[in-house]
Amino acid sequence: MIPGEIYLCNFPFSGGVGSKPRPVVVISRSGANRGPDVIVLPISSTTASRNAPFAFAIDSTSPNFPQTGLRQSSTVKCSKPFTIEKTLIARRLGSFHASDLASIKGIFLSVF
Q1: What residues form DSSP beta bridges with 37?
Q2: Coiled-coil regions in this chain (predicted)?
Q3: Can you give the pTM of this predicted structure?
Q4: How much of the chain exceeds pLDDT 70, in percent?
Q5: 81 and 108 in contact (C-beta within 8 Å)?
Q6: Is 26 strand, coil or helix?
Q7: How confident is the model at residue 30 (pLDDT cuts 50, 70, 90)?
Q8: How many Cβ atoms from other residues are within 10 Å of residue 108's Cβ?
Q9: What is the pLDDT of residue 47?
Q10: Which residues contact 88 (CB under 8 A, 6 or more apart)?
Q11: Closest by alpha carbon to 4, among 35, 22, 30, 34?
Q12: What is the DSSP letter of 15?
């Protein structure tokens, strides 16, 4: 797994009971991803998320959108990182273009 790759994972609900398949983007460095866990940011298709602080929106009309493997315009929630076991990752969807990943990282780092 490398930074910028998008995966479908079994995203745990708050409270730890149950999960739902959700897309996530890997943000941890490749070297850190050799273990059983990976650090990711959740991706939402909810339109309200697009105007949220610390969010990166990618529109389906963007020339970089097709390589993401996402089905619709989406928002990366850069202020919501979490560590997830690789066993909860279902499959790879695609990846963000290098310029989009740079923007995501910049927003993520501005949170801290």
Answers
A1: 85
A2: none
A3: 0.88
A4: 94
A5: yes
A6: strand
A7: confident
A8: 20
A9: 67
A10: 9, 10, 12, 19
A11: 30
A12: T
Phi/psi of residue 78, nearest 5 degrees: -70, -15
Q: Is the pLDDT of residue 88 over 70?
A: yes
* CB contact at 8 A, 38 and 69: no
Cβ atoms of 81 and 40 closer than 8 Å: yes
Q: Which helix (H) or strand (E) holds 107?
A: helix 98-111
Q: Residue 18 is which amino acid? A: G
Domains in the chain: ranges and CATH: 5-110 (2.30.30.110)
Written as one letter, the residue type at 15 is G
User: Taking Cα atoms as reference points, which of 100, 92, 101, 93 lies closest to residue 72?
Assistant: 93
Judge whether 99 and 65 are in contact, CB under 8 Å.
Answer: no
